[in-house]
Amino acid sequence: MRRKMKGRIADKTEKLITLQSAKAEDVEFSALEADQDDMEALRRSVAADKRQLKEMFDNHDNENEK
Q1: What pLDDT was estimated at residue 6?
Q2: Looking at the 3D structure of the chain, how many domains does it have?
């Protein structure tokens, strides 16, 4: 994050804006350059996504049964 004036500390709003713009950046994944930890993180991420979707569908089905 760049400061507008030397020595000036960014306020909360400026920090949030910077964080949001950083999260919007695209990140490329290269399987050729990935190590074991990267591949394990990818597998765990996919498994977590599946659990979350299952939970969402289960909650939706339970609400419709009432």
Answers
A1: 66
A2: 1
